[in-house]
Write a structure and sequence with these properties.
It is a single chain. By secondary structure, the protein is α/β, with parallel strands linked by helices. Helix content is 31%, strand content 18%. The chain folds into three domains: 289 residues, Glycosidases (TIM Barrel, Alpha-Beta Barrel), CATH 3.20.20.80; 198 residues, Class I glutamine amidotransferase (GATase) domain (Rossmann fold), CATH 3.40.50; 53 residues, Immunoglobulin-like, CATH 2.60.40. It contains 17 helices and 27 strands. Bound molecules: alpha-D-galactopyranose.
């Protein structure tokens, strides 16, 4: 595959004359791939069983003739009206039992057998027709699975959920025991009695809720798989993907990542939020990690404003380019947009595009053309190379996300916010962080951070223990190991067997009102936001203690050394600044993990190594100088110092590749 540069190409919204202009402009912008037919079901199958492909033949053939690859969507994300009206059983049902209406998009229950039958019939027809077409470079299944229909609570989903439960537990007695249904008289006599966790007077059984999240992610994945299976049968060798949405709570992307041939992602950082580039960096790191370090594709971003925020700020000059290079630096082999040509009608007409409504005499178009030219030049030195790992990983776990944010916990918790503090602290230290799954092999890492790993079963805790045994540095933060995978407490208290690894015992959680002053003092000093714990050091050294609140005077930060490795526990919540202070302490205390940091990097500037190149990217609105020397590939000149203008980018190679 070449480096992907292009967009969703909704050609069906435009007359044929526009298609010719589209191809001409695509070539001008160095577009290499177009995602076609994302929302075209009602044109491809205008009535039940009547298919019309000629218009799509023309689009695909024309793009192919022009040397532009087609990422062919299966069009199943939004069923046509006739299907919804003819088969209301396909419609989405919310937790109150409301049936959601067609008229927007994704109004469908992914578990509906009728929907699956119609969707796979369409996919079969598409794959038969285009599966061997030389212009089709990839299949794009559905679109953003679960974005508008994350969970369905209707009767058909209830039946599928019961089968899922039966597969998992085998018998209702096992389910009763593992869900703890003696609590509040919730015992079931058979699987037939189990319902989705629909609207109820107060909170549901936590194990029931957790299983429903797992089931709903699996239900979406199974709808994806139904289509992918057809494509793999009829279009062998053509890679199959679907576009992820970063840290998307309803879909456990670790499970999904095993079923796509390459990872692709949609990303829309808010241009009006000064540090949204940091969340974008975190999202790119997740995508690279989901693919095991292999290149991925940024499948959608905006050239400028979106249409779905309360205020849709445009990207500032250079900002789209800087965010694109951020994705490239962090492993992307493709930069794509939603969408090619700004719509004239419909619910997304205010959304920016590669070809703006204002036409090509525009800032956006000039930036699009310039980026396409640069990416084409860079392609030989970037394509297929890997982003360099710094030896640091953060554990990310959807079970923990789902569980920590349930009702009926010690406080309103925000899992991603806890992860964010640690990722952003590392980012500010100049460290490129990977994400790992709880079952991942940790041996490639020197430092592993487990923030708020709320759900951790014994096998995960044992894996952490052996990581430390083998000399790794482990940092575990508050609210880790709260429950096992059945949403039950570990016998003996929080952390389970990890308590021995860390040399601590957590006696009691002590969250406090944010206005109450509770701080951590000692080797690091910071104010907690709302979280503290009453902890006893049982074998660990105490490096900082709490001041104020119930835990006053007790351990807040501990370390248990283990020959070359060490296990740290932080019993407080941490802002990015607090997390940075803790990380600095870890990195400066022997035995310390050897991690290359660069605290001297100006704030708002990131530095990432990929292959033989070093990317320096500024997300600042002003000019900044960075002390680096090398060969500036974009400027085609040797430099002793880098001057980055607002949203400027420099890409350094050790030396010039072009012969003089
Ligand atoms: C999502 C969808 C696109 C479009 C964009 C708008 O990413 O996949 O179809 O709606 O949002 O930002």
């Amino acid at each position: 595959m070449p480096f992907w540069y292009g967009a969703d190409y909704n050609a069906e919204q435009w007359p044929a004359e526009t298609h010719e202009e589209d191809v001409r402009l695509m070539l001008e912008a160095n577009v290499t791939v177009a995602t076609v037919a994302v929302f075209a079901w009602s044109l491809l199958e205008p009535s039940d069983g009547e298919f019309e492909f000629e218009w799509l033949d023309r689009i695909i053939d024309r793009l192919y003739e022009a040397g532009i690859g087609v990422d062919l969507a299966t069009s199943t994300a939004t069923p046509p009206n006739w299907l919804s009206l003819q088969h209301p059983d396909t419609l989405l049902v919310d937790e109150w039992g409301h049936v959601l209406s067609p008229g927007s998009r994704q109004h469908v229950n992914p578990s509906s057998a009728t929907y699956r039958r119609y969707a796979t019939r369409l996919v079969r027809r598409l794959a038969e027709r285009y599966g061997q077409h030389p212009g089709v470079v990839a299949w794009h299944v559905g679109n953003e699975f679960g974005n508008d229909n994350p969970r369905d609570y209707g009767d058909e989903s209830a039946a599928v959920f019961r089968q899922w439960l039966e597969g998992k537990y085998g018998s209702i007695e096992v389910l009763n025991a593992r869900w703890g249904t003696t609590f509040w008289s919730q015992r079931y006599r058979s699987f037939e009695e189990v319902l989705p966790p629909r609207a109820a007077p107060t909170f549901h059984n936590p194990a029931h809720l957790l299983d429903y999240e797992r089931f709903s992610s699996d239900a979406l994945l199974s709808a994806y798989r139904a289509e992918a299976d057809v494509l793999r049968e009829l279009s062998p060798g053509v890679p199959v993907t679907t576009n992820f949405m970063g840290f998307f709570r309803p879909a456990d992307y670790w499970a999904w990542s095993r079923e796509v041939d390459f990872i692709s992602d949609d990303s829309y950082p808010d241009p009006a939020v000064e540090d949204s580039w940091m969340d974008a960096a975190m999202q790119r790191d997740l995508m690279r990690s989901l693919g095991g370090g292999r290149p991925w594709v940024l499948m959608e971003q905006s050239t400028s404003a979106v249409n779905w925020r309360p205020l849709n700020a445009p990207k500032r000059p250079g900002q789209m380019r800087a965010l694109s290079y951020q994705a490239v630096a962090r492993g992307a082999d493709g930069i794509m947009f939603f969408q090619w040509r700004q719509s004239q009608r419909g619910g997304e007409k205010f959304h920016s595009a590669m070809v703006p409504a204002a036409g090509t005499d525009s800032r956006i178009w000039r930036e699009v053309v310039e980026l396409g030219r640069e990416l084409r030049e860079l392609e030989p030195s970037v394509l297929g190379t890997k982003t360099e790992s710094s030896g640091v990983a953060i554990v990310i776990d959807w079970d923990s996300w789902w569980s920590a944010e349930q009702p009926s916990t010690p406080a309103r918790l925000d899992y991603i916010d806890a992860v964010r503090s640690w990722h952003h602290a590392l980012l500010n230290l100049g460290v490129t962080t990977d994400f790992v799954h709880v079952d991942s092999d940790l041996s490639a890492y020197d430092l592993v951070v487990a923030p708020m790993l709320f759900v951790a079963d014994e096998s995960t805790l044992a894996r952490f223990d052996s990581f430390v045994e083998r000399g790794g540095t482990l940092l575990v933060t508050a609210l880790t190991g709260v429950t096992d995978a059945d949403a039950a407490f570990h016998r003996g208290g929080p952390l389970g067997s990890l308590a021995a690894t860390l040399g601590v015992r957590v006696e009691e959680y002590a969250p406090h009102d944010p206005t109450e002053s509770v701080s951590v003092e000692g080797g690091v000093t910071f104010s907690t936001r709302h979280w503290a714990e009453v902890v006893h050091a049982e074998g660990a050294e105490v490096l900082a203690t709490f001041r104020g609140g119930l835990a006053d005077g007790g351990p807040a930060l501990t370390r248990k050394r283990n020959r070359t490795g060490s296990a740290w526990y932080l019993a407080a919540d941490a802002t990015e600044a607090a997390a940075r202070a803790v990380l600095n302490l870890i990195l400066n205390t022997a035995p310390n993990p050897v991690i290359h940091t660069d605290p001297a990097l100006p704030s708002g500037v990131e530095e990432v190594r990929r292959g033989t190149l070093t990317f320096l990217i500024s997300h600042r609105p002003d000019t900044v100088r960075v002390a680096r020397s090398g060969y500036d590939v974009l400027a085609d000149t040797a430099v002793d110092e880098i001057v980055l203008e607002a949203h400027g980018v420099a890409i350094l190679a050790a030396q010039s590749n072009t012969p003089d």
